[in-house]
């Protein structure tokens, strides 16, 4: 009865939606602690493993980036459906971030500007393989339920480490100064 | 910056205003109000010209103009019609009347007609909850709106009949006093209170104030004598008495009645305060919605001056010099907060200051200033005449004297009810003829929502403190919609200075709208309460600190009103995801399966 809990390894998925992969780079920035983490978690769907879809139920999904197109919506929905906890990782996931700069423009005008050819005509690609853009870039909590928010552009490696170790030890994650100081 | 020109015609209209205010930049709010009255709106050019004439920056004029809801940058028409949108106006059917007027005038909400004649929009509570639905036309109050009255107004507007020639019965504002006690029920003898105070002497009068234990009637309940004493002892060259008549709390209208029919007591209370603390200048900060009171209040002040109750050596006391000036607000609820009010008096945007220092040491122009509520000051006259001990015997131990309640909503006799402190909610409900109340919102949108099982509680600082608003909701009412109305009110009235309030009130409003739209889930219910935990401790002033109260109270006490609107899933976006792809579909010409987003599998 008093035997110490032997924690089950947490199953972690990660994805970058409309982001720059900076948050994933920051995750790698926990450096040698990655080895420590690898003893405590298994990575499922993630750019780190190159697993394309969730292979089983996960405990935690770390989501970088906002939601800018239809594919982002599908990825986010898959992660939500297969995870106990969804974590908005970094500024873009939390509130749209830099990509949301386009939100005050009409998405149609954006496409016409971007795909203008030198002769002045526009050729907007219509390949079904290309995901369609949403009218705006949305933070992930406007598309699915989100359990935790980790602000920062990017959140530092230490912040991510603090968050993960809190989760692993069953503490309510708390990110405080200086991990919340950005200037 | 190059010299800016406005038309000669406009300059001729504005020059007398500048002259009257001696082109003082600290009078900017008053100047802007009067400029708008003659020019209908304050364009960027007018603002730049004013900046030059007042020798301040364009940004200062612009920031003040843009802060106040009743100042317009663009033409909103010669007739600017605003429907009061408090929950009590809603319950009286203001939305149908609003739609009816838009239809008759062929207008979109908030958009001026093509000929630049008229615009129709909503505004926050105008303090006519006992005789609503109410509207403002160019800030003049019209009460008891009916479909017929809407038609008549549309005809007058289309006929371009000047507002001054509209039927007088439109503008009748009744007092509706249904229960009078010592303040509302005692005849006023002009000068009696001031002379009684003089007879007691400065220290004597302050002593009586201390004995009376009078507490502020604006809501916070700070002991008045302590405030006066602190102001009197503060270092400063000049002292000021400010009467806070920015009665913006939804559902409150007692100050309106006091100023309409009991102004003598309010002004004499100010004079007595001035006598005690040694102030020579007073301000009445009157909310812009009560513009209709201005002429009669000015006339009353003139009468007091000729009766020797204002001016030099009042009551023959050498050195007791005091006069009162009226400043008008311009549609900003936050100016009811005393430091925001002082900012507004100084001609600036009404953003609350950091306290301390408190106004008693550093208020108007950095000088010691007493800011008291209208009702508080009128109570002072009773204490001057009858003494503090007499006053202290009325009411409860910590809440002495009487309190005026502004009763509105689902009852037979809405209006003013004055009770000794300690009265039970149920007693008030019985007196005003509210048979089937399910809830009472006490002290306005920022106050507390009491359900039936709490009707035995008492109005007093010890139990249910109040600034006076008492809105009754009958069994046919939907308490979710009540809280949603309040959430819109706060999002509109947040001054934007601090992030918890500016963002928090908008998030609260958005979530309430999402739930109303049938897109809310348990997640949103949790978010509402989480937001309240950010707003309350994190906001700079009382506005943000109390903005989540009505939602939190109704979630606790009327949860089914929320739950029956919730979607039975984990989460639903607030918008249609597939529609968010429409523009991209249009430009790419795609309509394949991948070009659509369905509901979540």
Automatic annotation (TrEMBL), chain A:
Any matching Pfam family: Oxidored_q6
Domain NADH:ubiquinone oxidoreductase-like 20kDa subunit per the UniProt entry, residue ranges: 20-166
Cofactor: [3Fe-4S] cluster
Keyword Iron-sulfur: yes
Stored InterPro entries: Hydrogenase_assoc-protein, NADH_UbQ_OxRdtase-like_20kDa, NiFe_Hase_small_N_sf
Record keywords: 3Fe-4S, Iron, Iron-sulfur, Metal-binding, Oxidoreductase
GO MF term set: 3 iron, 4 sulfur cluster binding; oxidoreductase activity
The protein's name: NAD-reducing hydrogenase small subunit
Species the sequence originates in: Azonexus fungiphilus
TrEMBL record, chain B:
UniProt cofactor(s): [4Fe-4S] cluster; FMN
SMART domains in UniProt: NADH_4Fe-4S
PROSITE patterns (UniProt xref): COMPLEX1_51K_1, COMPLEX1_51K_2
Example GO molecular function: 4 iron, 4 sulfur cluster binding
Keywords attached to this entry: 4Fe-4S, Iron, Iron-sulfur, Metal-binding
Domain NADH-ubiquinone oxidoreductase 51kDa subunit iron-sulphur binding span(s) in chain numbering: 480-525
Family per record: Belongs to the complex I 51 kDa subunit family.
Protein name as annotated: NAD(P)-dependent nickel-iron dehydrogenase flavin-containing subunit
């Amino acid at each position: 009865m008093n035997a110490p809990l032997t924690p089950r390894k947490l199953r972690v998925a990660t994805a970058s939606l409309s982001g720059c992969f900076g948050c994933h780079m920051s995750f790698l920035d926990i450096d040698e602690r990655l080895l420590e983490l690898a003893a405590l978690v298994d990575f499922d769907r993630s750019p780190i493993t190159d697993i394309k879809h969730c292979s089983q139920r996960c405990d935690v999904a770390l989501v970088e980036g906002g939601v800018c197109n239809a594919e982002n919506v599908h990825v986010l929905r898959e992660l939500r459906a297969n995870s106990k906890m969804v974590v908005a990782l970094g500024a873009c996931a939390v509130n749209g971030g830099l990509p949301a700069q386009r939100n005050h423009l009409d998405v149609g005008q954006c496409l016409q500007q971007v795909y203008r050819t030198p002769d002045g005509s526009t050729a907007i690609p219509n390949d079904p393989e290309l995901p369609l853009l949403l009218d705006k870039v949305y933070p992930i909590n406007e598309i699915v339920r989100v359990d935790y928010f980790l602000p920062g552009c990017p959140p530092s490696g230490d912040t991510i480490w603090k968050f993960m170790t809190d989760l692993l030890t069953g503490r309510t994650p708390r990110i405080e100064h200086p991990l919340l100081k950005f200037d | 910056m190059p010299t800016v020109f406005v038309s000669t015609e406009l300059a001729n209209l504005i020059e007398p205003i500048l002259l009257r205010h001696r082109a003082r930049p600290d009078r900017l709010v008053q100047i802007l109000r009067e400029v708008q009255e003659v020019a209908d709106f304050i364009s960027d050019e007018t603002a730049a010209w004013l900046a030059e004439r007042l020798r301040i920056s364009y940004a200062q004029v612009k920031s003040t103009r843009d802060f106040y809801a009743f100042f317009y940058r663009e033409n909103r028409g010669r007739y600017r019609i605003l429907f009061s949108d408090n929950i009590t106006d809603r319950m009286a059917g203001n939305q149908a009347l609003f739609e009816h007027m838009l239809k008759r005038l062929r207008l979109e909400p908030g958009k001026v007609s093509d000929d630049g004649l008229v615009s129709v929009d909503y505004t926050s509570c105008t303090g006519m909850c006992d005789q609503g639905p109410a509207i403002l036309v160019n800030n003049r109050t019209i009460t008891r709106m009916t479909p017929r009255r809407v038609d008549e107004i549309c005809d007058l507007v289309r006929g371009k009949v000047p507002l001054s020639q509209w039927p007088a019965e439109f503008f009748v504002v009744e007092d509706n006093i249904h229960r009078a006690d010592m303040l509302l029920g005692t005849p006023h003898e002009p000068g009696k209170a001031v002379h009684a105070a003089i007879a007691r002497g400065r220290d004597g009068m302050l002593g009586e104030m201390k004995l009376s234990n009078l507490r502020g009637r604006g809501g916070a309940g700070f002991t008045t004598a302590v405030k006066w004493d602190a102001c009197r002892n503060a270092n400063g060259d000049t002292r000021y008495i400010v009467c806070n008549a920015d009665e913006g709390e939804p559902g409150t209208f007692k100050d309106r009645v006091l100023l309409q029919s009991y102004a003598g007591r309010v002004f004499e209370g100010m004079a007595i305060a001035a006598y005690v603390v040694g102030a020579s200048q007073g301000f009445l900060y009157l909310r812009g919605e009560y513009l209709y009171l201005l002429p009669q209040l000015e006339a009353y002040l003139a009468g007091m001056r000729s009766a020797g109750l204002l001016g030099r050596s009042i009551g023959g006391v050498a050195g007791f010099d005091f006069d009162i000036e009226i400043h008008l607000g311009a549609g900003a609820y936050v100016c009811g907060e005393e430091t925001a009010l002082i900012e507004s008096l100084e001609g600036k945007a009404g953003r609350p200051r950091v306290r301390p220092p408190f106004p008693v040491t550093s208020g108007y122009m950095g000088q010691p200033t007493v800011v008291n509520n209208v009702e508080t000051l009128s109570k002072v006259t009773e204490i001057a005449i009858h003494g503090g001990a007499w006053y202290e015997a009325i009411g409860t131990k910590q809440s002495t004297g009487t309190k005026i309640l502004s009763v509105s909503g689902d009852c037979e006799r809405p209006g003013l009810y004055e009770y000794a402190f300690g009265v039970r909610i149920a007693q008030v409900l019985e007196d005003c003829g509210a048979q089937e109340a399910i809830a009472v919102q006490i002290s306005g949108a920022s106050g507390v929502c009491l359900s039936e099982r709490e009707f035995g509680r008492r109005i007093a600082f010890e139990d249910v403190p109040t600034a006076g608003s008492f809105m009754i909701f009958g069994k046919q009412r939907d308490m979710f919609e009540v809280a949603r109305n309040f959430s819109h009110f706060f999002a509109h009235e947040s001054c934007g200075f601090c992030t918890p309030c500016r963002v928090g009130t908008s998030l609260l409003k958005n979530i309430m709208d999402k739930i109303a739209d049938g897109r809310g889930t348990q997640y949103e219910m949790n978010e509402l309460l989480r937001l309240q935990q950010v707003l309350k401790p994190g906001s700079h002033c009382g506005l943000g600190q109390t903005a989540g109260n009505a939602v939190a109270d109704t979630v606790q006490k009327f949860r089914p009103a929320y739950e029956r609107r919730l979607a039975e899933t984990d989460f639903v976006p607030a918008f249609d995801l597939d529609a968010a792809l429409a523009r991209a579909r249009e430009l790419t010409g795609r309509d394949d399966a991948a070009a659509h987003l369905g509901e979540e599998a």
